[in-house]
Specification:
heterodimer; A: mainly alpha; 5 helices; 0% strand; B: mainly alpha; elongated
């Protein structure tokens, strides 16, 4: 079982290493990621929202939907932490009532 | 009320670890430094939130700093004093309020005929489209800041056993 998983991992690593040869070089202006929407952001963010910080412009306006999702994730994480911890504490207190503290 | 860490030791041997994070340090230095640092941390946190348009920073980072200032209060002053300054209920209230207001900010443009979170369509934010977007970004950052602030304090209170 262990040999299978290790060889699968090696195979996956080999495929990734092989595929990484086709990646565009770092900072290449002709890379597909750099010719889609990035030029629009870089050229127009100051004009469209009076915001010199491009990162903020992308985060809170162009990609605001994504940021809203992130915010909801943070809220959900806090909520579930709270519910789990409070419930566990109640269970502990319940045990205490039955058999005393260990 | 406080979270118990079960070390398996008898009561006396477990010592002060028993009361966990609700323990107070009775130290003059800690008190004075905390009282001096907390307002400065909070002012800098609001600077980070409101200056997100011009420098690195924004709602998430500023919110974390605000939460850190409250955690410093909790650690240095103990529960009684710090709960008087920042009640444990406020954490979840801030988090829920921030999320709700952000959602309202998203729905408002839809009321006026735009897309979700398209601040350009909120008429009372300014005269020009760019100005409206500017204020929309600022409002979003502030709401995110409140959300992160409240969420982290709520998690801390739940872990330390104070948020009941």
């Amino acid at each position: 079982m262990r040999i299978i998983s290790i060889s699968l991992l090696l195979l996956l690593g080999g495929v990734l290493a092989y595929a990484s040869g086709d990646l565009p070089s770092r900072g290449d202006p002709q890379a597909p990621a750099s010719v889609h929407v990035s030029p629009h952001y870089i050229e127009n963010s100051l004009v469209e929202m009076e915001t010199p910080n491009m990162v903020t412009a992308v985060l809170a306006d162009y990609r605001a939907f994504d940021t809203f999702g992130e915010a909801v994730v943070v809220f959900t994480a806090a909520l579930s932490c709270l519910l789990i911890l409070i419930r566990r504490r109640r269970e502990e207190e319940g045990d205490e009532g039955r058999e005393g503290r260990a | 009320m406080s979270l118990r860490f079960d070390s398996g030791l008898p009561e006396g041997l477990a010592g002060s670890a028993h009361r966990g994070m609700s323990r107070t340090y009775h130290s003059l230095f800690v008190d004075v430094v905390t009282k001096a640092m907390v307002p400065m941390i909070q002012v800098f946190a609001f600077y980070v939130i409101f200056h997100g348009h011009y420098s690195p920073g924004g709602g998430f980072q500023g919110g974390v700093m605000l939460a850190a200032s409250i955690m410093l209060l909790r650690l240095a002053m103990g529960q009684e004093e710090s709960f008087r300054r920042f009640p444990p209920d406020w954490g979840m209230l801030l988090a829920a309020g921030g999320t709700l207001l952000f959602a309202v900010l998203g729905v408002l443009p839809m009321v006026f005929g735009g897309n979700f979170l398209d601040y350009e369509y909120i008429p009372f934010l300014g005269a020009e489209a760019a100005t409206r977007r500017y204020w929309g970004i600022l409002l979003a950052e502030v709401f995110i800041g409140f959300l992160v602030w409240g969420a982290l304090v709520a998690i801390y209170d739940a872990l330390s056993g104070g948020g009941e």
